Amino acid sequence: MDHPHHLREPRKFFFQRGPNSIERPSNESSKRGVALADFLVVASLFALTALLVHLATPTVPSSPQRHASPPVDSGGAVVAAVNPGSRLALYSRPKGNPVGVLSSRTVYGGPLKLPVVRTRGDWLGVLTAAMPNGRLGWVKAEPGALTFGRVRLELEADLSRQVLRVWSHGRVVRRIRVGIGRSGTTTPSGRFSITDKMPGSALGPYYGCCLLALSGNQPHPPRGWTGGARLAIHGGAYGAVSAGCLHASTADLRYLMRVVRLGTQIVIHA
């Protein structure tokens, strides 16, 4: 959000329609189809149950040590991708009132990947840009609506040292010097995720080669600011100079664009 023309225009969502049937099936075919559908539903439920049991199993805390909530396990963090054509109600708490709707795309047009950091029954607590900083969103794990995967990396931004650490399997694999927010527009602390990766050339020369958008927002934008408030990692100067975003060199940005997957978590602390 270091420029007044920072991304702020959401894209419209388009949903896929299922194909129309052009042939009436026979009774025997219909029975086989129903049996197959029942089998797939049961298989999906078993897979979902196994995942939720795994998520609910405590893991031994690993790096980074200064997390506000437990870090990911050595197998990687669970990420839920909303399947094309699906829409999920977003809640501020399980069984509460819905506060929004999530589709398969972010407001910038990329695929929506939600890090799963809490579970409660068949409810998933996720990191999403649709919620305020520090607040989890909750979605119900509906069969067929989500595809689960894992990401092996985690990022840690140490504001006091002005360094971004890339963690993998409990160890630091790269340290990156970063610029941070200046006085009055300091970089917010908390746990966020990487929501989008975009070329800087499409956004303006002030972003450098590349931009990794975060799920967090700047709650204290500069006076008279008319741009968007989303945080990001992009090009820029070192030191406490930004409006809240993290700055990195071109070489480091290209590295992050190459190895960091959507849904990767980033912990920012003082």
What would you say this structure looks like, in words?
- The model is unreliable at 8-63 and 65-73 (pLDDT under 50).
- Strand 4 and strand 5 (123-126) form a beta hairpin.
- The chain is built from two helices and 17 strands.
- The longest helix has 30 residues, at 27-56.
- The protein is an alpha+beta fold.
- The protein is 15% helix and 34% strand.
- The chain has helices spanning 27-56, 250-259; strands at 77-82, 88-91, 98-102, 113-120, 123-126, 137-140, 146-151, 153-158, 163-168, 171-177, 180-181, 190-199, 210-217, 230-234, 240-242, 246-247, 265-269.
- The radius of gyration is 20 Å and the shape is globular.
- It starts with 26 loop residues before the first helix and ends with a strand.
Structure keywords:
270 residues, alpha+beta
Overall structural class, as computed from helix and strand content, comes to: alpha+beta
What best-fitting shape do the alpha-carbon axes yield? globular
Q: What is the β-strand count?
A: 17
**Terminal-residue CA separation:** 20 Å
- The DSSP helix count reads 2
Largest sheet: 8 strands, mixed
**Into which percent range does the helicity of residues fall?**
10-25%
Largest sheet: spatial strand order? 10-9-8-17-12-13-14-16
Brief overview:
This protein has 270 residues and is α+β, with helices and mostly antiparallel strands. It has helices at 27-56, 250-259, and strands spanning 77-82, 88-91, 98-102, 113-120, 123-126, 137-140, 146-151, 153-158, 163-168, 171-177, 180-181, 190-199, 210-217, 230-234, 240-242, 246-247, 265-269.
